[in-house]
Predict the 3D structure of the following.
Amino acid sequence: MTSFQDMARVAERAMREVFAETPLQLNAHLSDRFGAEIWLKREDLTPVRSYKLRGAFNAMRKVLEAHPDQQVFVCASAGNHAQGVAYMCRHFGVRGVIFMPVTTPQQKIQKTQIFGGDAVEIRLTGDFFDDTLAESQTFCAAEGAHFLAPFDDDDVIEGQASVAVEMAVQMGGAPDHIILPVGGGGLSAGVRAFFGPRCQYTFVEPAGGRSLYAAVQAGEPVTLDRVDSFVDGAAVARIGEKPFEKLHDIDAADVIAAPENRICGTMLEMLNVEGIVLEPAGALAVDALVDIADRIRGKRVVCITSGGNFDFERLPEVKERSMNWQGLKKYFILRLPQRPGALRDFLDLLGPNDNITRFEYLKKNSRNFGSVLIGIETNAAGNFPSLFDRVNKRGFAFRDVTKDEILADFLI
């Protein structure tokens, strides 16, 4: 038994005065689909609907044990970490100052305030997270406050390892395989450090933020030039230094990328089939099952569903991105002759299952042709090649802009 395991168990026992353990549930749907025992560790069912309160609790607990007079805690976050810190500030009866970017959605601000109540003060500053972080650290230095890091902290990692402590008890030992979502690395470092070589691991990052993979390849943490922020709970440009100390020896082949649009399909599947609400980062582990299906057949596998803080105002975007991944919806710009009957000629080319969902056209009197933005949904991806073939044969010029990031962001 390692000292880290001992400390993780102590942290887990201490947490029971604050919240109950999260369930470990066998999922029949996923088990049948992949020919394995697929268990979900439901971190989306904590009081703040993510595992982040574990690390916040443990770090705050240990600071207060060592320095009982420390009464001000600070974090910089627009997501689950802020909510976990707020919840624990109210529990410990200390003051929390939470810095958030000015661009933070109102829903996240309100939820953080609800969890913290009168114990927390929220300060909105900076358009970008780096500005927010710098302001929070300046405040800490001036006020003598303690900064609570979201993942790059030994006590936070130890707190996140309580997920593994619960899992071992609930399962009666280690599973064969654990699928871990990765952002800054605190959860994955804690779980792997607890179980060690007793099981296999798959680490899953969003395709637009592969900071762990880049670090394993380079042998040290590196900062990504660009990060896709859609999977906001795991879109981290640089893996934490301390988490990487516990992950540096993993095989790069065990770090896989989950495409953002495919994650959306997984979120919808879990919602529609299982009634489980997952945020994009919370769906990472389940989404990765398709990539390792051959490796896990016949095994006991745990997917950690790390969070369920999903704003349903994002649901139309999630559906749109899922259909894009499946090839069931496309947008294109059509060059349409400005003459009577031209639109009817185009409509005659549509198949019985092709449905126009977007149509934007403004007649320009000084031109012979006009540009039309068209969105089309269909029931099978194979319908589009035949449609485009008919359009080409009819002589209509068009451009598929579905995957053109600049045009799609501007027009769609």
